[in-house]
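Ticket opened by: R.M.
Priority: normal
Category: complex prediction / small molecule

The reporter submitted a protein together with zinc ion and asked that the result be attached to this ticket for the collaborator who will pick it up next week. Submitted input follows.
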Amino acid sequence: MEAFWKKVVGGFSGPPERAAAVPIAQTLAQAAGAEVYAESVAAEGGALLALAKRGIEKSLLVAWPAGNRPTVAKDFKGKRRKLVLAGDPAEILEGTCSPANAAALRRALPFTAPQAIAGRPSIGLGDRLGVATPGHVRAVRGTGYVPMLAQQSIREMTRTGRSPQEVLDDATWGVFQTGFRTGFGADADHLKTADDIDLCAKVGFTFYTIDPGAHVDTAADTAPVAALAGKFDALPWKALETTAAETRRRFGRRRGDLGASGAIDFNEAILLRAAVKYGRAVAHTAALYRHLVKVRGKGNFELEVSVDETETPTSPAEHLYVAEELRRLGVAWVGLAPRFVGRFEKGVDYIGDLEELGRAFAAHLAVAERTGGYKISLHSGSDKFSVYEIAARLGGRRVHVKTAGTSYLEALRVIAACEGALFREILDFARCCYETDKATYHVSANLDKVPIAAVLADNQLTGILDPFDSREVLHVTFGSVLACGGGKRFRGRLLDALKAHEEQYAEALRKHIGRHLAPFVSR
Ligand code: ZN
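Result attached by the on-call engineer:
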């Protein structure tokens, strides 16, 4: 501690060596009368920073030599007192994990702020409860993958009663706690309007997923060519900054060579279908992109385009049309999520023909490679274990897997193991909400196959987290569970239990998210 404290005073910045971190944490713990996370200990600008835990509540510690409060420590709010630290008179501030202290922490330790992925391999790890980051870090540490630790759609924020600020702050505190210094991203997921963008831009999200799904005309898939021609002429040509005739000329004899995946020959029918289906979505995406440039500044954000939540699959030709049109309109993006063939239901494995999916996946990768080299994003990517092998083999680091709900299910697994009575209540409540809650998700669980809690012995509770039907039922009812009784019935108890069993939850996530990553990192 003494040597490290001297280094801190001397302006050293960074974490102490592993062997030194534990005694420093112990010294700080003694001083604060709390536990201190050894991995969180860091020095910056003449101050020592760490995260403490008293019971299940966490707090921030900032220490500096007495009488010499460094600039970096001035931003933090909390109670100050004098003490002797490693033989030297010092001062320590203890503050709550407030939004103001999170903002100050991001300024003091930039690794606790989200950053651009910048071409590195990445994985989306949504956290609906705000306590998953330490486990997510365990899963990705050492893999070279940049995790999206703050990742939430507006829909999910509404259902979980969390704000973009809270989503970001929870990731910041988790990253601080674990001393995860290699960088993480913040994905404002499934944004549909300029207002959605503003909410997330204001608090500093770095990655924006635009979902123009509401402007996709899936009826185009089956409409006769004559009907398509009329719809084609009625596209918003002004917003698309082109004309029907010019578009016909551009794509008329367009041949897209996809290497091993063959070639796309645009004929009249293929063009009309692609343009009618996705033309309005292209215009909407371009408008939202320009709005983002206005509010964030060009180069200060990364963009993904997602049409995964639409009714019918995106063909490679349609993908090519979308990519070329977006490019023509000056949109820059790093990832695209097509709607794939088959069913990507929530929290369960892929349902469909894996060979067909593999062919489509290869073709989409080929389009992405030839139109800018962006990633293919796999949404509803939780628990698609049969797909990862194929995706990893075909795309490797050019595949971004996006998960969220599965970390909530792992939380319930911990509750099932440690707080049986609470889990029983949640299970029965979820059974009641399922028929209503399933409306906005792609799921097909049969409620009759999900047992009521009363028939289960205690040692059968964690087993409920494995079968298809109960997984889906528990997965899509998270919003109702969290909101029940204004959050009074489950939310507080659930969070308190997870904080009390923090180690179990982190281990469960390390294992479970690790299984998602393994096929990718082993290549
Ligand atoms: Zn999605």
